[in-house]
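Entry:
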Amino acid sequence: MVRHAARAGRQARRTRRFIGAGIGFVVLMAAVAAAAPWLAPHDPVRQSLRSRLAAPTLEGPDGKSHLLGTDHLGRDVLSRVIHGARVSLLVGGAAVLVGGAIGSALGIVAGFRGGWADSIIMTLADAQLAFPFILLAIGIIAVLGPSFPTLVVVIGLSGWVSYARILRSQVLSLRSREFVDAVLALGGSVPRIVLRHVLPNVLSSLVVIATLELARAIVLEATLSFLGLGIQPPTPSWGGMVHEGREYLDSAWWISTCPGLVLMATSIVVSRTGDWLRDLLDPTLKGE
């Protein structure tokens, strides 16, 4: 028993260190994105055909350093990767806020009200899960046009189901608890119960879902930009850079590889941080 407790304690401390490292990585990426105009060594959209397709070097054909090389238009890849972090994190963060707000509200309503409201909301969730996301994105973007707000709305709408389904199940459990009946018996209103008693109990789940959804939103933004449905050129985007460099993989591999590696590392770290948060905050997993 003592050995089991000691092992659980070591695992918890190790998980906290992993979470700290993951959060530190996200904070670092956010700082890089915020300071992109000062950190980027070159203008990310300035073209120079004289130095096009220059390999990673400390001194290119134009006499300037290009640590990650240049693309087919002579633009510095490192500068575009740094500025691309702004797009990915802004779109991902905004989409998580949109999807989280919609999904949390609908999940709480479905779980607390039940009845026809629950049936309608869960039917909508099942319908969206059965509908291909790419077709939904193409339809919305075809009507509204590719732009930052449209991209946020599309990705946000694609992620509300996760919040709604998980919060619904938790609220269904909380609704039958004695403290909720006591507050209702004392004349407490439903909004008061939700704000003062339900939300604090589901906050840890919201944090975990939001972290996992952030990784998914970053990948979806890159996917849509790769397909030409996301952020439009010449604004740097990791997915767009991978798309632009796909024709030069045999001669200028760095154009697609560098943003692709940064995208992969960011999505993996954010996703794993969500898994570690779940392991730390979910009481059903602490004994495993």
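Residues 18 and 24 are 10 Å apart (CA to CA).
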